[in-house]
Design brief:
about 240 residues, alpha/beta, 10 helices, 7 strands, about 45% helix, globular
Length: about 240
């Protein structure tokens, strides 16, 4: 985690105030506009990107829907994935996180500010409750990020199969799907060192509900997996 230390040291005069403000937002999340809290999160993340020797190359931002109420599905390479997407997606998004990450300082505050959900993958009942809650929130106009591999691939730019169940959220919410292809994101926090790294984030053309409404979860998972894999393979 030398890169995190580098980010903190290069911003040591900014960190206390920025973190205090984030904690304040998290404790009073219902009292502030979501966009205000999200912009502060982006401010912190962009400081980290700049000071952490990270070059974010982003394509396809025009594919992010203008209207809220969509779900992003991306390949999962490492701990930096959520932060990279939040730093570059200007529409506020929440995420479905594994419970092990939900109470880590900084990530906990982001979770609270963005109405994100922690999922216990060993508890089927709790996992289903998370899916139901995501569906409700998307229908109300919130946007969410889901990593359907369920865990980091730990194979660099190779992808794991997608879990079909995560696509129940989109099918039930009847919302647009935005596939995201991440390339080399694992190099930021899942590898040692502080050398400059380039991370690619490709927002792919959204899939409207009308295009996938007749598919089952398995076929939809395979469709989205195929589109993301094609983009990853073309850019790695």
């Amino acid at each position: 985690m030398l890169r995190i230390l580098l980010m903190v040291l290069r911003n040591f005069w900014r960190v206390p105030r920025a973190y205090w403000k984030l904690c304040h937002y998290a404790k009073h999340a219902d009292e502030y506009p979501e966009i205000e809290m999200y912009r502060h999160i982006q401010y912190i993340l962009k400081l980290g990107v700049t000071s952490g020797n990270i070059d974010l190359v982003v394509t396809g931002k025009e594919h992010i829907p203008e209207e809220n109420g969509f779900i992003m599905y991306g390949n999962h390479q490492g701990l930096f994935d959520v932060l990279a997407i939040a730093a570059t997606c200007d529409k506020p998004i929440g995420a479905v996180l594994k419970k092990e990450l939900s109470d880590i300082p900084f990530l906990k505050q982001i979770r609270l500010c963005t109405h994100s959900f922690a999922m216990d993958r060993e508890d089927i009942k709790q996992s289903m409750e998370v899916i139901v809650n995501v569906i409700k929130e998307v229908k109300k106009g919130r946007n969410y990020l889901i990593f359907p591999e369920g865990t980091r691939s730990r194979k660099g730019n190779e992808m794991l199969d997608f879990h079909w169940g995560s696509f129940k959220c989109a099918l039930k919410a009847k919302c647009p799907i935005v596939p995201i292809a991440l390339v080399d994101s694992f190099k930021v926090l899942d590898q040692k060192g502080i050398k400059p790294v380039k991370v690619q984030i490709h927002y792919l053309k959204p899939i409207p509900y009308e295009e996938y409404k007749d598919l089952n979860t398995k076929d939809l998972a395979e469709m989205v997996h195929s589109r993301i894999k094609e983009a990853v393979d073309a850019n790695k």
